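Q: What residues go here?
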């Protein structure tokens, strides 16, 4: 299967997703509608190219089967996932506060349903006051995601570093490297 065939399979699996207010850009021999260079079909095309370059035929077939029914092999209920995430976070928060010596109010929480089909990991929050859950409307990034139709109704998200920085401006390296 080549990238175009894989792309068409991805489109069939996710045909209900479309970009709004789009312009046309060509990818390979396909006309793909995109907005600002980033939308579902364009990402799917790039993903398909990488998948066909990196995966064997068997692995590619398994990927396409997974994309048709991503939750088919799940054995946890939504409630069990929520409980497991909550327990792991409480353990992490407790340890992080002990190690860092800082307050818990600057630790972000995840947001959205734990069994969501879409997951988002942001690199770092930067707020000057207390931090809450991932889907904080004060965050410029969250507002931009919401403008593109992504919400906490169907997306699970968290911040990679969990502890918010006071400011992003002027920082040249990831805080974990300090």
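A:
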């Amino acid at each position: 299967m080549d990238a175009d065939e894989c792309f068409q399979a991805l489109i069939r699996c996710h045909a209900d997703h479309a970009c709004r207010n789009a312009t046309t850009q060509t990818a390979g021999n396909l006309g793909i509608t995109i907005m600002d260079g980033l939308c579902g079909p364009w990402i799917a095309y790039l993903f398909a190219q990488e998948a066909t370059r990196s995966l064997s035929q068997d692995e590619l077939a398994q990927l396409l089967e997974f994309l048709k029914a991503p939750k088919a092999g799940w054995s946890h209920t939504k409630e069990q996932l929520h409980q497991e995430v909550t327990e792991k976070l409480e353990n992490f928060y407790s340890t992080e506060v002990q190690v860092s010596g800082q307050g818990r109010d600057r630790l972000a929480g995840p947001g959205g349903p734990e069994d969501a089909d879409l997951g988002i990991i942001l690199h770092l929050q930067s707020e000057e006051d207390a931090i809450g859950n991932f889907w904080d409307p004060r965050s410029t990034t969250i507002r931009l995601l919401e403008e593109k139709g992504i919400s906490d109704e169907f997306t699970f998200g968290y911040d990679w570093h969990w502890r918010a920085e006071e400011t992003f401006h002027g920082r040249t390296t990831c805080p974990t490297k300090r």
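A: Context that may help when evaluating the design: The two ends are 45 Å apart (CA to CA). The chain has two domains: 3-68, 78-177.
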